[in-house]
# Entry
Amino acid sequence: MAKPNKPEQVPDTGHEWDGIRELTNPIPRWWMISFHASWIFCVVYLLLYPSIPLLHESTKGLLGWTQIKEFKEAVAENDAVKAPFLKKVAQMSGQELLDDAGMRNFADSSAKAIFGDNCAACHGSGGQGAPGLFPNLADDAWLYGGDFDTIVETITDGREGDMPAHKGELPDAEINLLADFVVAAAEGKATPKGLIHFNEAGCAGCHGEDAKGGAINELGSGAANLTDGIWRFGGSKDEVLRTIRYGVNQEDVPNTRIAIMPAFGEKLTPESIKMLAVKVHELGGGK
# Structure
């Protein structure tokens, strides 16, 4: 039967409001098909996948699929792909890793997640650190050494800075002169007289007679180079005075600086530490 084209030819329900009649046109076929397809899809989904919550769990579904299972399968696939590369990482020395462009790229890429999970909270996502709190890993200024093996040692065993507090050991006037020298040395304006005073105060024992850390620093003392303008705790005179007065990691000394890096040797695998060392080495243009 042909459908009438004009509204007045279509029966209505008898309802009319403001001149608008409610007609009895049949529902379009495409709409009915979509409606039935939707509830059929819902029933099929309920049968195949976990979906209906019960008292302690949900229905399992005929496929036995879960997000956790899918995640674990994806992790297993990824581990299988990485396994031969990790085996090579374990067998290669640090220098071999750095010299092999392909393996260095693998190590650096793999270390992004390791760095993000374990290091970025303190050192920042780009290794830029936080002034006065955590060292900058991207400035090529190494407190304990920037060669590959030393970086591995630092990550594995951690580090703990140590500088004695001079308040009460030296007169305030002498501490003030030392702070002036340190600030001037960082600006390249240190005077011979200031350097003599620096050495006489006993600072050369750690920082070297030229205040550059010297061989002691290269051996890993953690004594900073005071002439490079790179500051661990801040370079204003007030910050320098605080460091000299209260030292670093001194027990029972108020206002002492805290400089402790935790050890990751028991948390990370040797391969992860080695790959992380590659990333840190590259960040700071390591030695």
The mean pLDDT is 89. DSSP finds twelve helices and four strands in the chain.
